[in-house]
Design goal:
Oligomer: single chain
Largest sheet: 2 strands, antiparallel
Number of helices: 8
Strand content: under 5%
Structural class: mainly alpha
Radius of gyration: 18 Å
Order of helices and strands: HHHHHEEHHH
Length: 170
C-alpha cells in the first residue's frame, strides 16, 4: 500500500517529467512546465465553475491552457529567436504573476461541486488501480512508443545530440 501511495502521488510528476525529458532530448530546456500545469488546471476549473462545461470539455480547456503556455514559448523561441532558457524563464515569471493575481496571492484553486466523472479522473480507480496511475502509465507508454519506436523519435534524439550532424544528414 505504501508503494501504491507513492506511485499515486507521483503520477502527475511523472507526466511532467516525461514532457520535460522530451524537451531535453531535443536539445532544449523549459523552466515554465509548472506554469503550464497550473494554467491547465486553472482553465479546466474556470470551464467547470464559471461556464458549467461538461468534464470532457474542461479537460480540453485544461489542455488548451497548457498549450497556450507552450505556444507562447514557441513564439518567443522560434519566431523571435530568444534562447530557450531565457524565454521559458520569462514565461515562468509572467505566468506565476498571472496566477498570483488570479488566486489572490497564490491560494489553492478548489471547486468541490464537480461532476462525478471528472472527480473520478482524480480519485477513481480502474480495476483497483488509481486513475492517476492508469493515466500516467498510458502517457508513459505513448511516450516510449513515440520516442523509441518511430522515425520522429529518432529525429528528436538526433537533433538533441548532434544538431549539426542531423542537419547535414537531412
Amino acid at each position: 500500500s505504501n508503494l501504491l501511495a507513492i506511485v499515486e502521488n507521483s503520477a502527475v510528476l511523472l507526466i511532467v517529467a516525461l514532457a520535460m525529458t522530451l524537451i531535453v532530448a531535443s536539445g532544449g530546456i523549459d523552466l515554465s512546465v509548472g506554469v503550464a500545469v497550473d494554467f491547465g488546471a486553472a482553465f479546466a476549473m474556470v470551464a467547470l465553475r464559471d461556464y458549467g462545461a461538461p468534464w470532457h470539455v474542461a479537460i480540453l480547456a485544461g489542455l488548451g491552457g497548457a498549450g497556450l503556455v507552450g505556444a507562447f514559448n514557441a513564439l518567443l523561441i522560434v519566431a523571435l529567436g530568444v534562447r530557450p532558457f531565457l524565454a521559458t524563464l520569462g514565461t515562468f515569471f509572467i505566468g506565476s504573476s498571472i496566477q498570483r493575481i488570479y488566486t489572490d496571492g497564490g491560494g489553492p484553486i478548489a471547486f468541490r461541486r464537480m461532476e462525478q466523472a471528472f472527480r473520478d479522473l482524480a480519485a477513481g480507480n480502474l480495476w483497483g488501480i488509481p486513475m492517476e496511475v492508469v493515466i500516467a502509465g498510458a502517457v508513459a507508454l505513448a511516450y516510449y512508443l513515440l520516442l523509441e519506436r518511430t522515425v520522429h523519435g529518432r529525429r528528436i534524439h538526433a537533433i538533441g545530440l548532434q544538431p549539426r550532424a542531423a542537419r547535414l544528414a537531412g
